[in-house]
Each structure stands twice: as structure tokens, then as C-alpha cells.
Amino acid sequence: MSQNLLLTDAAGRPKNPAPTGTPLLSVQDLHVTFSSEAGDVRAVRGVSYDLHPGEVLGIVGESGSGKSVSAMAILGLLPDNARITGSIKLEGRELLGLGDKQMSKIRGKDIAMVFQDPLSALTPVFTVGDQIVEALSVHQKLSRDAARKRALELLDVVGIPDPERRFKNFPHEFSGGMRQRVMIAMAIANDPKVILCDEPTTALDVTIQAQILEALKNAQELTGAAILMITHDLGVVAGFADKVSVMYAGRPVEQGAVDEIYYRPRMPYTIGLLGSIPRLDVSGEHGRRPLTPIEGNPPSMVDLPDACPFADRCPIVTDICRDAEPELLPAGPDSHPSACHRRADLESGTIPIDQVYPVPQIPETHLDTVPRAQRSPVLEIKGLQKHFPLMRGAVFKRRVGTVKAVDGIDFEIREGETLGLVGESGCGKTTTLLEILELVAPQAGSIAVFGRQAAKLSGRERMEMRKDIQIVFQDPMASLDPRMPVGEAIAEPLRTHGWSQDKAYERVAELLELVGLEPYHASRFPREFSGGQRQRICVARALALNPKVVILDEPVSALDVSIQAGVINLLDELRAKLGLSYLFVAHDLSVVRHIADRVAVMYLGRIVEIGDVASVFELPSHPYTQALLSAIPLPDPRKERERSRILLPGDLPSPANVPSGCRFRDRCFKYASLNAAEQMKCRDEDPVIVTRPGKEDHAAACHFADALEVV
């Protein structure tokens, strides 16, 4: 790919070579407007770019910035109320104005699409093989046998194991990652010239995401197609794209080669996006600095004023920013274009890049100076098990197996400490949380909160204990009753525990201010808030009864990175102010590294590695942890080009069919390099978790654990 062909400019800085020749796809001055009751929604306002053969263009920006709408306009898939102007040319042929019959000959053949949600994109009543065969038959004159042979080849190319058998499966019989591979197979079936990818890895675990990106790279090499990658993940773009277009309020605000955008941004919005990302590759004191939140929300796309749409959120705004919208122009002869009135100040260094956004101050807590061994445990889990019976039969049910969701785990959280619990979907993280929140005797093992065994609590004691342990869920909209004002939602746990109405309302106002909102917001409904504000409301509700432990179940995974940074900073600030302890469940290890003190890695119901964040992230010992960390993309193009991935084969096995011995051995890259005796040990003996030599707080469950630097 061209991103690996680095040139240098006069200053010795890397520079991507500009492609030459006629662009394959040329989008010029694209505008898309939707009619609505509130007025015209100007979703896309002047998007222009050229895409050459074999090139990858990454389009990034917050939700609502117009990324997906611009892609749908290329395919002619927008609804009838969309008014489209501008130009979209494929190999010089104008696509705007073509009828659906003409576009249907282009879609799937010359331009293919990989959608965000493969389950919605695939027809549930047809096998995946039949759907790939249909994609081939629509555009090519192939016999049924030839189409079937080609479909099997495509399934093999994208890494679907046992294509002959999987050809006959339905979409619901595949995991999310496998379904996305099927979508890629369908996309490349007719050797397209352009592949549009709309958030193709958003809902996937990092290990599966790495597999999908590898499949896309293989597909591009096979077809020679150009790729338009729409994503919010700046790490994915850093390692995958040649060029980047940053969109805000329906238009590009900065465009250029990936190195230029990441190392020399000239637009405050881009600077904010890059500063809001927790960095997996930043360790020590620098890794725990507050993130850069972009305050406020994107503007409404109805009746946009004639001003910079980013002005209300920009930390270096001036009067001219409120008088006219800046054009997309370069700051100097050797600079890339950006839409900012102050681009020249950023280019010259008059405004240093690292001083554009003020860094929030997180207060220190007295517990920071207290050694961990001297702090009291607030939550202790020993030998916790939760198995579910697997039943079959409609009338006469019989047990045919056992789902080992949680299969004997141990950890503890001490006062003022944050433990990150990470692992792929289905590893048992959420089941662990629910067992803790039940505050009853588990099937096996023990749960102790503040030194008291949950199994020995009476009903009244359990009710009182719930004040001290609260939860914040992943989806704030699903956590709030849409018919209830947020003030009522926050006051609900207070009234449950006997607070008077006046006292509860005083507490609600106090809580809203604590999480960065205003007291008058109490009368509003959840739909009137942004996603980040709704999550702050959920945090306020969790803090209503002054808990000592807060369980956070993927609290920022549904948020844009700019909003995510503010919520992470808030959680850090509240931990310091209130002396809270967190159990932080996440699949994003970059977030965990930033916020956690210790981390526990789960795989198939077991903790396979646990220890302090610095030890586990810098020198992981278990092969699974090493694969997880290597799969996380870094928002740094140079580092991404130099890294090597540890790609795990297949998906997480079913907890109803746990492999014998080491449960990770079927996916372990180290297993293949062992001799016969060592492999037999992995097959026959279940490894116990053992402390790493010289490290009291770092242990791994692997027969052949060996520290390896992967970040």
C-alpha cells in the first residue's frame, strides 16, 4: 500500500507521495439536504475529494457530521426527500442523476459496501452461501456450480474456516466478526473498483477487529480496489489509511496525508479529537494525565449561521470566527488544507498545538500516597462460579450440558482503587457484575463487601448494603425512563430509601452540579440531552446515596471520543473527590490503561492475568493478553506501520464446550511452537494463576508464561 512508501520533505519529515493520474472516484462540492418539519437539514455541505486506485481514504468525525450520508449519496441509497447537488464521478462517469436501474448495475459490481451492522445487512432467511451466489449471479453470467465454487473461494479468502460447511449456514449461526467477513466476501465478489466501509469494526472486539482489518487488506490486495473507510476510531485510520478527511457539521474541516493530519493538525477540532483519545502507548505519569474533552455539542444542521460551526466549542475562537465560515485552504505553501481562520497561527507556532486546549485539573486524594497494602478491601471475590444449565425439549426438558459463564475467579478491590475487568464478549464479565450486585450466596465461592459476606446478609442488611454499591450501565438512554424527567430519575433511589421530597430535590441539584450539569436540567427529559450528558445523569443517579463502590459496565463505549474524554475525566475527578472505588468493565484497553490502577483479563470464565496496570500493559505474560494488546490500533501512523499484530484464529469458544486443559490452547500462537510433551501438558492440565517472578502484583495462568513487550 502507498502508506508504506514514505518520502521526506525539506525538514526531513515523512510525507506520503501524492498519487498521479485520473482519480477512480471523484466527489466534488457534494451537498445533501433533507426536508423536515423544523426546516431544511443540510446534512452534507460541500464535500470534495479524489480517490485513486489502491488508495485508502479515512473519513472521521463525530456522530451526525455527515460521514455516512455522503457515502450513501455515492451509492444512490438516500431516501426520496434528499436533495443532492454537486458531482460524483466514477472513472469519469457522472453518477448523480442516474436512475435506480442504472445504479443497480454499478452497486455491488463497481462500487461495493461493507455496512456497520452485518446482521441487518444480511437476509436472515437465506444461507450466507446463497447470498454470495446471488451477489455473483446478478452481475456475472455464471452457472450455479461456478458461482458456488467462487463463493467458497471468497469465504476462504476472508478467513471463514471450513467454507464447505459454513456455506450452508444462516447469518444467525455466525458470530459478529464472522458475519462481517461474509459482508467483505460479498463486497469483493465482483472485483469492485471502490469499496465503501461504514464503521465496519465498531461493534467488534479488538481481536476480531484486527481480523477484519486484515481481511480488508487482503481483499484490497486481491481486487486492487480503492477503499473509503468511515470510522470514529482514529487508531484504525492511522494504520489503515493513506489520506484523512476530518468532517464537522456536514463538511470537511481538514484534509491531507495521514502523517500530516496526525503530526501537524491545523484545525482545533482535529487537535481536540487527537487529544481526547486515551493512549495505550503512553505510560507512567503521562498516561494518567487528564484527556482533552471538546466541550459542548455539534450544532443543529437546521438554519446554520454564517459563522464557523465550531466556534462555540473552540478554545481559540476570535471575532472573525463568528462573522464568517472559514474556507478549506492551506495555511502555507507546504501545508494541507484546513477550515480555520487561525490556521496560520497554528502553522507558525504562534499558538502551540499542545496549548490549544486547557488541560483539566484532576484533584489528588489522600489515598494516592497510601500504599495499597495499607488500604482496606472494599470488595473481595474468591472462587466465584456461575454455571447455567443447558436444557433441551419443549414439554419434557432435559439437561444436555452446562454453560460455564464464570468458572472460579478471584480478585479484590481496595479503598480508592480502580480495577479494570477486560476480555472479549462472552468471557463472563457481565455475569460477574450481576453476581456481585445480587449480594446473595453464589453457587460456589464467596463475595465479601466491606469485609461482610454477602451470603450472611439479612434482607434489611442487603437493602442497606445496596446504598454502598451502585452501577452505571453501558447505554444511558436504555437506563433512563424516557417518560420521566431526569430529576425524578435521580431522586428515585433517594425516595426508595426514605428521603423526603424536599431533601431529595436538594440532593438532585447538588448531584447535577457535581457531574457538570445545571440544576434546571432536572425538569428536562432524557431525549433533550446528548449521549455524554445522559451518561453524566446516570453517574449522578449512581452517586445519589453516597456509595463507596461504583461498578461501571462499558460506561463510555457508546460515546464519541470527544464526549468520552469528558466522562472519563469526570470519573477520575469523582474518584479523587469522593474517595470512590471502581470496578471498570470495558473492551477498550486504552481506556482501561488510562483510568485503572490494576487490571484483570478474563477468558472463557476465568481470569488469565491480573496485576497492576504498568506491569500488565508493558510486559504482559499470558499469550491472550499479548494478543489483546497487540490488536489495539494506536493513533500514531509511524508506530502502526512498525507494529506486528498477533492475530488469533477464530472466535471465543462456547462456554458450554470449554476445551480440556488450558482453555486458550486452540487459539494460542505459542502452543504451535511447543514440543509434544509441552503440548500434552497444555491439553491435559488446567493452568493455575501464578505470580510472575519478582512481581508481587502480577500473575498469569499459563504453563509457559513469558513476558513480552507488544505495545
CATH architecture of the domain at 374-399 and 417-596: 3-Layer(aba) Sandwich
* Helix run count: 26
- Output the CATH topology of the domain at 374-399 and 417-596: Rossmann fold
**Count of DSSP E strands?**
26
CATH class of the domain at 374-399 and 417-596: Alpha Beta
Q: Kindly report the name of the CATH homologous superfamily of the domain at 374-399 and 417-596.
A: P-loop containing nucleotide triphosphate hydrolases
Q: How would the global form be characterised? A: globular
Overall helicity: 25-40%
Give a description of the structure:
With 711 residues, the protein is α/β, with parallel strands linked by helices. Among the domains are: 374-399 and 417-596, 3-Layer(aba) Sandwich (Rossmann fold), CATH 3.40.50; 613-711, no CATH class. The chain is 32% helix and 21% strand. It has 26 helices and 26 strands. The chain has an eight-stranded mixed β-sheet, with helices on both faces. Strands 8-9-10-5-11-12 form a six-stranded mixed β-sheet, with helices on both faces. A hairpin with a 5-residue loop joins strand 15 and strand 16. The longest helix is centred in the N-terminal third of the chain and has 18 residues, at 206-223. Residues 1-17 have low confidence and may be disordered.
